[in-house]
Write a structure and sequence with these properties.
alpha/beta, 7-stranded parallel β-sheet, 8 helices, 40% helix, binds NADP nicotinamide-adenine-dinucleotide phosphate
């Protein structure tokens, strides 16, 4: 299928995990993708792997200066964006008593301010028919220990799905979101856990998942691309759970 022939996507946090998978599928279906990430090295590596329809911008989703220069940086590659996947993020999971102000602010900067100002800055480059997809989380549905800040931040993103849909209706831009369950990515890598602790955490999570496995980033990408496609032309202000049913099956 070539659903995105000659279309351009901006994918924040596209060097790895779900963002990378979305970039890959978007390119496979005829489009071009601009990805962001925090370092020259990760962005360069991902662009090289994705091929000549991929472009990279080093931009930190938690940094206002970077967010405010995103539009100019994107315009070096294209004047029109058809899909924004506001995805950049990381996890830091801490017991309430150990959360400090810095961790709190950093998570909210990256997970809440990041998607808000990314979309604010890119909307002027979008035409009627364009699509915004936010990445929220199953953590908005299931209360998990140590997730207090992360879950609150993702609940704010969930709220953006609805409020942005309201404001962007007039422009003909559809706004939706996905709520992933436990997906096999590098999300645990910046949490301070070592490889063995990460493996243990994953092994503890797997029995709680109805399908008894983590999701693949490609399974998220299929849904993001569906939401961005013509096939989703009547879907607006919706959040699709891609979580193997974990949020409803006990
Ligand atoms: N994995 C899960 O189970 C799960 C479930 C629900 C929701 N999510 C959400 O899914 C999104 C993608 O995460 P993932 O699971 O695919 O993890 P991942 O494999 O670690 O990928 C995260 C991506 O975000 C980028 N990133 C992180 N912090 C950034 C920042 N401050 N500015 C710009 N880019 C940044 C990383 O790029 P660099 O390292 O190059 O900066 C990387 O490309 C996140 O918002 C996460 O909260 C994940």
């Amino acid at each position: 299928m070539q659903r995105f022939k000659d279309k351009f996507a901006l994918i924040t946090g596209g060097t790895n995990g779900m963002g990378y998978a979305v970039a890959q599928q978007f390119i496979d279906e005829g489009g071009s993708a601009i990805i962001t990430g925090r370092t020259e090295e990760t962005v360069h590596q991902a662009v090289k792997q994705l091929g000549d329809k991929a472009f990279g911008i080093v931009s930190n989703a938690g940094n206002m200066k970077d967010l405010m220069s995103l539009q100019e940086a994107v315009k070096l590659y294209t004047d029109t964006i058809d899909l924004v996947f506001a995805n950049a993020g990381y996890g830091k999971f801490t017991p309430i008593e150990d959360v400090n102000e810095n961790d709190f602010d950093e998570l909210f900067n990256v997970l809440v301010k990041g998607p808000f100002f990314t979309v604010q800055q890119i909307v002027p480059l979008m035409k009627s028919g364009g699509s915004v997809v936010f990445n929220s989380s199953v953590a908005t549905e299931i209360a998990m220990p140590n997730f207090s800040i992360y879950s609150a931040a993702k609940s704010a993103v969930q709220s953006f799905i609805k409020t942005f849909a309201t404001e962007l209706t007039e422009k003909g831009i559809r706004v939706n979101g996905i709520s992933p369950g436990h997906i096999k990515t590098n999300i645990f890598n910046n949490t301070g856990l070592n490889t063995q602790q990460i493996e243990e955490a994953v092994q503890n999570i797997i029995p709680t998942i109805p399908f008894k496995r983590q999701g693949e980033p490609s399974e998220i990408a299929h849904v993001v691309l569906f939401l961005a496609s013509e096939e989703a032309s009547y879907i607006h202000g919706a959040e699709i759970k891609v979580d193997a049913g974990i949020s409803v099956i006990r």
